[in-house]
Design goal:
single chain, mainly beta, 5 domains, globular, 113 strands
């Protein structure tokens, strides 16, 4: 069997298989065999297989080794996902399986692969222990081949951060120094011992910490535990620290027993930990093999442990459905070995492989879903078998598939699966497999979707720049992008195609029904494909591109549509539909019938039959009713073909040259690709649609036209009320436009003096002004850009920023009479004024005058004064460098941390205010990076009052899911958290429950950290961004320090380490996930006491007597103003002594900025959500 996997799909599972997984033949116990990776869906459907290399090669001077596994060895083959999520790692032996089996003991010292020597210089050929690093794109790196480790024994597991170095565990000769945990760089042949303890099992990296499990006969009564190696990843010999209580054995209780060991309740049973999964910092699942080296009955299955702040406690062991047998039996399952999982809201979904007595016993992949908060085994939980190993194979490890984490997430919907409201961003994809269903997906620009044969999708949006390939069925989608129906039997139905959108039936057997083509929408039919019951609205187009392309049912023209014929129809194909609504400005453009074509109309069966003939070739069209029999006319088109229209299509004053003459008016015209419509001076056009490739020349007046993407309008007269997706050009003095909307991808170019643009809304589009021309009363929103290209270009009246707008002044104005003369409003932190003509030595100053704020930027030679509506504080405006050597003016709003925030460093967590330049931080991918600079700023509460761009936001502990942040995290509103693969400014996450923004403070102090490049670090355990200089460095009070430290630093364009999301469905999906993960509290048995309440601090304790291991979330508010939320999880000895659970129920929190006496009097502490409030006395 050859490999069928070329890459992996995010969300799928991967299992490692030894034995005849590649069809190479059967193997006996302990023989060398190939290692096969098998990708499966989470429902058990096989996606494909990948056989790891069986041939040693040299690539660019680097030796890539063959890698084999030992068939029947249950303690190896563990599969791990790298911490950065981009690769899988597994250990093996650096030799071809057949070669080893042929050489056997005579060549390698033992016929059993795992018992081969790894020592060089002996009488036998050494076999290196090899790390296979398998990337998300299918690339396999086996260059790390280690000698002198795990001599005459097996390599068991591998862990890595990002594939540049590895941690490896395994066994050697008991007592020697080739066993234990080792560290090796990628491509190395020797490794460094971290710990040479015996019988190390599985090593994992979790949140930057290295762990290992052990189960050995050595030591007093054996050694079985899980241990860690400090808070930073070790690179040399390091003493491990055993996790408290997961050590050796437990005294079994009835609550902890599995389905086999009830008779051992009250006695001590030994542990045999293998793989493990941290569902949260305080919940750990352990795959126990049930066959401890220390002997005895064991406790095989899936153990759930919880941490109480001092030690770990075994809550219960899940085993129902595993069909466990005693470890004294001759065959069967005794427990579990491989394990992975994921947290989904309040549930933990786990996947595990089984441990067996005999080397060649049947192996399986199981799954089970557990209640994250449960501390006693739920009665309804049972394992389900996902995969049963094929004959002559063993399943060993299991992991989630790797993915390219630098792009948006990929989504796979497997057989029986459902995806609801997925958002696919630029670079991301969704694949709906056979039997899967996607509902309401939003495929954003740059994203892609594939609906496989047998898969289905409904609803949702395919945005401009997005693509969808349909091999199954799709219905009800809004099409703004490109949809390709490319399989026989594939179908789309009940869709609306908008300007710039297209549906292509690209292959024989593809079908479309109920398609509506809106302004600029296109339906193209190629091959023997068919569309039924199609509606063409104003500007819509159907293109029949092949001889067997077919329209059937009905075609309804409902406003200036086009049917374009690109091929002579074969008999029984073409336009078989009955056409209705055909009227003024509707066109059937037959591009293959020549200019000598004749038109013949007859009435048959109450319908009009129009036949176009040219020699022996003819095309026929059927129109509903007989009214058109006398009014259909034939004329030449612009491509040497012919157009069929009605005689009423031509308005008074227009002629065969597509000209609207002076005094004439033409309404609803459609200008198709290759056509030009001219509106003469004195002529008027109303509501025209210029399609891609079409051109509209207006010397007269244009009202309400739509310029589609790819369409062009040249204005020497006046246009108003239009919508621009394409290009609009004004190149004659005196030309003007007003009240137009320019959408994303659309451009308006003013290229000469004397032109005026009034009331233009740049909704993602752009307006550029060259020459002595003016834009008056302009709105910038959602990425809109206004560019002043000449020293006499001006913007006057009002300039409203309505969301992420940019004003560029490419050259300095020639005098104070030009440039930015408008009064600017709505200017916020995501808006930019780019003064490219200013030098880097410029300064910024501001004064208040007449209720406005005048901001002057001066570089010694040139000055520019900007007028902002309202009274702004001086440090609201920030001067920074742009990427072209000029300067930017932005609004203060740089993201920062508040003092007290715990930042993860190489030596552990430290308060942010104690950090210094040069201190090294742990980043998301596990790298250790030094601090380059630390910015500091502070504000008086009187200035910050009412400033949503300054007032701090508190993220309550656990509000981001998975127990994160570990403590309340207080940051500035524009500070972004890394969630679901994207950066989200925290102000976009405020929900007034678990994420709240302060309204009143005494003082706000912020600190931010800069590395060499933008990155993700950990604040209170949560992934959070570092500072990036996007022109905002100048707002820090110590900004000059950076220039002093790095005088030669050149300004560079800001490059974010991940996509930034501030609006849209992708943000809403994240908000929904966080809301679903928000802790909910049953308040029927809550004890809540407040022991201290001052203007700056609240302390007390709270617990739920029915959930002794849970930690209550509390809301602190004054009147209706929510100040913060806090988890009651601190330990107090007096609570424990009083029998209040384990004592971890206290809370003690500082209130940002303090409270007034009135606010203190109205202070309320209550569980979340609303329940039994405790009101404090004044």
């Amino acid at each position: 069997m050859s490999s069928t996997l070329k890459s992996f799909t995010e969300g799928d599972l991967v299992i490692s298989v030894v034995g005849d997984g590649d069809g190479s033949g059967t193997y006996t116990d302990n023989q060398a065999s190939p290692i096969t990776l098998e990708e499966i869906t989470t429902t058990g459907e096989v996606v494909g297989t990948m056989v790891l290399p069986q041939t040693t090669t040299v690539v660019d001077g680097v030796t890539e080794y063959a890698v084999s596994g030992e068939y029947g060895s249950s303690s190896e083959g563990e599969l791990q996902l790298s911490q950065d999520g981009e690769s899988l790692v597994i250990g093996g032996y650096g030799i071809n399986a057949a070669t080893y089996n042929a050489g056997g003991a005579a060549v390698y010292g033992d016929a059993r692969l795992a018992q081969s020597t790894s020592l060089t210089g002996t009488s036998y050929t050494a076999v290196p222990r090899v790390v296979a690093d398998i990337s998300y794109d299918g690339t396999v790196d086996t260059s790390t081949a280690l000698y002198g480790v795990f001599n005459t024994n097996n390599i068991r597991s591998v862990a890595t951060v990002d594939g540049t170095s590895f941690y490896i565990t395994g066994q050697g000769v008991k007592g020697d120094t080739t066993q234990g945990v080792f560290y090796a760089d990628d491509g190395a042949s020797v490794a460094t011992a971290i710990d040479t303890s015996t019988d190390t099992r599985v090593t994992e990296i979790v949140n930057g910490v290295l762990y290992v499990s052990r189960d050995s006969t050595q030591g007093s009564g054996g050694t079985s535990n899980i241990a860690s190696y400090g808070t930073t990843l070790p690179v040399s010999a390091t003493q491990s620290e055993v996790l408290p209580a997961i050590d050796g054995s437990v005294t079994l209780t009835a609550a902890e027993e599995n389905s086999l060991n009830a008779s051992a309740v009250g006695t001590t049973v030994s542990l045999s930990p293998e793989s493990y999964f941290f569902a949260s910092p305080t919940v750990l699942y352990v795959a126990d093999s049930g066959n401890p080296k220390a002997g005895g009955v064991g406790d095989g299955g899936l153990q759930k442990w919880t941490y109480n702040g001092t030690a770990w406690t075994l809550d219960y062991t899940l085993s129902v459905g595993l069909n466990l047998v005693s470890n004294t039996s001759t065959s069967g399952t005794t427990g579990l070995i491989g394990l992975t999982g994921e947290v989904e809201g309040d549930d933990v979904v786990l996947y595990a492989t089984n441990a067996t007595i005999g080397d060649l016993d049947q192996t399986y992949l199981f799954t089970i879903t557990d209640d994250l908060d449960a501390t006693t085994a739920p009665a309804d939980e049972s394992f389900t078998t996902l995969v049963t190993a094929a004959a002559d194979t063993n399943i060993r490890g299991v992991s989630f598939a790797p993915t390219d984490t630098s792009t948006a997430s990929a989504v796979t919907v497997a057989n029986g699966g459902t995806s609801t409201s997925a958002t696919i961003s630029n670079g991301g994809s969704i694949v709906v497999q056979s039997g899967g269903t996607a509902t309401g997906a939003s495929i954003l620009s740059g994203g892609s979707a594939t609906i496989s044969a047998g898969g289905s999708a409904s609803g949702g949006v395919l945005a401009h720049g997005a693509t969808e390939t349909v091999l199954g069925s799709v219905s009800g989608t809004q099409i703004d992008g490109t949809q390709i129906v490319s399989a026989a039997g594939a179908s789309v139905s009940d869709e609306t195609v908008y300007n710039g959108g297209s549906v292509a039936l690209a292959i024989k057997g593809a079908q479309a029904s109920g398609i509506t083509l809106n302004n600029g929408g296109i339906l193209s039919i190629d091959g023997n494909a068919a569309a039924t019951d199609t509606t063409i609205l104003s500007g819509g187009t159907i293109e029949l591109e092949s001889a067997k392309a077919t329209l059937s049912g009905t075609v309804l023209f409902s406003g200036q549509g086009t049917l374009q014929i690109d091929s002579i129809a074969s008999s029984g194909y073409g336009t078989l539909a009955t056409i209705s609504g055909f009227g003024a400005a509707d066109v059937i453009d037959d591009r293959v019938m020549g200019t000598g074509t004749t038109l013949n109309t007859t009435v048959s069966g109450g319908n009009t039959i129009a036949t176009l003939s040219s020699g022996s070739v003819s095309q026929q069209f059927t129109f509903a009713g007989s009214a058109l029999a006398a009014s259909l006319t034939l004329s030449a088109d612009s491509t040497d073909g012919v157009e069929l229209t009605t005689s009423s299509a031509a308005s008074s004053g227009s002629d065969s040259s597509n000209v609207v003459s002076s005094g004439a008016t033409l309404s609803g015209a459609v200008v198709s690709s290759g056509d030009t419509l001219t509106v003469s001076a004195g002529g008027t056009i109303v509501g025209a649609t210029v399609l891609s490739g079409g051109m509209l020349d207006v010397a007269g007046t244009d009202s309400g036209s739509v310029i589609s993407a790819g369409g062009v309008e040249n204005i020497t007269g006046h246009a108003s009320g239009g919508t621009v997706y394409g290009t609009q050009t004004l190149a004659t003095s005196g030309a003007s436009i007003s009240n137009e909307t320019v959408l994303s991808g659309g451009t308006v170019d003013i290229t000469i003096k004397g032109v005026t643009a009034t009331g233009i809304t740049l909704d993602g589009g752009s307006l550029s002004i060259d020459g002595n021309s003016v834009a008056n009363n302009t709105v910038l929103k959602d990425g809109g850009t206004l560019d002043l290209l000449s020293p006499k270009a001006s913007v006057t009246g009002s300039l409203e920023f309505a969301g992420a707008g940019t004003l560029i002044q490419s050259v300095a104005p020639s005098s104070t009479a030009y440039g930015v003369q408008a009064v600017i409003s709505g200017f916020e932190a995501d808006d930019t004024i780019d003064l490219e003509g200013m030098g880097s030595a410029a300064t910024l100053s501001s004064v208040t005058s007449g209720g406005n704020t005048l901001v002057t930027v001066m570089d010694g030679k040139t000055s520019e004064t900007l007028t902002f509506a309202g009274d702004y504080a001086a440090d609201f405006f920030v001067l920074g460098a742009d990427s072209a050597g000029g300067l930017t003016v932005t609004a203060e709003g740089t993201p920062c941390y508040c003092p007290g925030t715990a930042i993860l460093t190489e030596t552990g967590e430290r308060p942010v205010e104690t950090l210094e330049i040069g201190d090294r931080l742990i980043t998301r991918n596990g790298a250790i990076r030094p601090i380059r600079w630390i910015g500091r700023r502070a504000y008086d509460g009187r200035f910050a009052a009412g400033r949503s761009d300054i007032m701090p936001v508190r993220i309550a502990a656990g509000a981001l899911g998975e127990g994160l942040p570990r403590r309340d995290l207080v940051i500035s509103p524009l500070h972004a958290m890394f969630l679901d693969g994207v950066l989200v400014p925290v102000h976009a996450l405020v929900n007034n429950r678990t994420i709240t923004q302060a309204e009143q403070v005494d003082v706000v102090e912020y600190i931010h950290i800069e590395l060499e490049t933008h990155d993700i670090i950990f604040a209170e355990g949560a992934a959070s961004e570092t500072f990036i200089d996007d022109g905002s460095r100048g707002m820090f009070h110590n900004a000059r320090e950076y220039a002093e430290l790095y005088p030669d630093a050149e300004p560079v364009a800001a490059r974010y380490c991940a996509p930034r999301v501030e609006s849209g469905e992708e943000l809403e999906a994240i908000r929904r996930r966080l809301d679903a993960a928000s802790p909910r509290t049953d308040t029927s048995s809550i004890e809540l006491y407040v022991d201290l309440a001052t203007r700056g601090r609240v302390a007390g304790w709270a617990r739920d007597t029915l959930r002794p291991h849970s930690r209550l979330r509390l809301r602190i508010r004054t009147n209706e103003l929510v100040l913060c939320e806090v988890t009651a999880d601190r330990h107090r000895a007096d609570l424990q002594a009083a029998g209040k659970g384990d004592g971890f129920h206290a809370f003690d929190i500082d209130l940002i900025g303090g409270l007034s006496e009135e606010q203190l009097a109205a202070l309320v502490v209550e569980p979340v959500p609303d329940a039994r409030p405790v009101r404090l006395a004044a």
